[in-house]
Automatic annotation (TrEMBL):
Record: active site: 154, 258
Record flagged with keyword ATP-binding: no
Organism: Smittium mucronatum
Listed GO biological process terms: carbohydrate metabolic process
Annotated protein name in UniProt: Glucose-6-phosphate 1-epimerase
Length: 285
């Protein structure tokens, strides 16, 4: 049985657990289609705050929430409505390589009355292999009008020690520094090691990055296609203290490396599709 589901008191699927043949597993909450766990080769790879709130209202703190149709603040609530809306579980499919599950979000009464009133079909396909997790986000414009959006897969990766966590592959790439409020900064150092509050949008970033952990024998290969940018975020000490759903010292245990198209919006004419894919794979060092 490669997929197990649980339902809420209305009988609607609220959680889906994908199970791979060799012990890999992935948990998806239909609230926001948020992945809250990915276990590969016996180890949890995803950070979920111990203080995350599961009330089907708030965004889940940690995991991999889907940001759509707005990244950051704007006319809609921060990071858009997809991460705070219940998605529909469309079912699963097995293959020799693993198991995949699909989730659907379309417009509802609230979204058509919002500042982003369009009809759309958003499908998240989650593919779980033995050593990889592949997320593909497909946006279809089912409206009669063109629309634009920004979007990302807000992945929180787990680390035992932020000081020994290294991100490789961003050398020479310009970034927007949301902490300093500047543009066109360039990494002085490679690999990137987080030493303070970090909130950067690497614009038109390379498709492949490596996330490694000191004294550990495995690293993560992070690969995007379709998405233009990578966002790197760690709240560090002061911001962490101000977040009610995040422990004061949990900044030491996580790093967000988010694949998205956020610096320039994606423009999608009526009837057209767009797809962004984010694949994370465990590699032996
Ligand atoms: C990141 C943004 O993607 O998400 C940050 O770049 C933001 O600016 C962070 O603080 C967390 O956002 P939220 O809404 O989940 O607290």
């Amino acid at each position: 049985m490669p997929v197990k589901t649980t339902t809420d008191h209305y009988g609607i699927v609220d959680k889906v657990v994908l199970m791979g043949a060799t012990g890999s597993a992935c948990v998806v909450h239909t609230h926001g289609a948020t992945i809250t766990s990915w276990i590969s080769l016996g180890k949890e790879r995803i950070f979920l705050s111990k203080q995350a709130i599961f009330n089907d209202v708030k965004a889940i703190r940690g995991g991999i929430p889907v940001v759509f149709p707005q990244f950051g603040p704007g006319k809609l609530p921060q990071h858009g409505f997809a991460r705070v809306t219940r998605w529909e579980f469309l079912g699963h499919k097995d293959s020799v390589d693993g198991v995949q599950a699909r989730f659907l979000l379309t417009e509802n009464e609230k979204t058509v009355a919002s500042p982003w009133p369009y009809k759309f079909r958003l499908v998240l396909t989650v593919f779980l292999g033995e050593t990889d997790l592949k997320l593909s986000l497909n946006v279809e414009n089912t409206d009669t009008r063109e629309f634009d959006f920004t979007s990302l897969l807000h992945a929180y990766f787990r680390t035992n020690d932020i000081n020994g966590t290294r991100l490789q592959g961003l050398a020479g790439i310009k970034y927007v520094d949301k902490v300093l409020g500047t543009r066109d900064e360039v990494n002085p150092e490679e690999p990137l090691v987080i030493t303070g509050s970090t909130d950067r949008v690497y614009v038109d970033a390379p498709d492949s990055l490596a996330l490694s952990f000191e004294n550990e024998s495995e690293s993560l290969q992070l690969t995007k296609t379709g998405f233009n940018d990578f966002v790197v975020w760690n709240p560090w000490i002061e911001l962490a203290k101000g977040m009610s759903d995040f422990g004061d010292t949990e900044y030491q245990e996580m790093l967000c490396v988010e694949a998205g198209s956020v610096d320039s919006p994606v423009v999608l004419p009526a009837g057209q599709h767009w797809e962004g894919v984010y694949t994370m794979s465990v590699q032996k060092n």
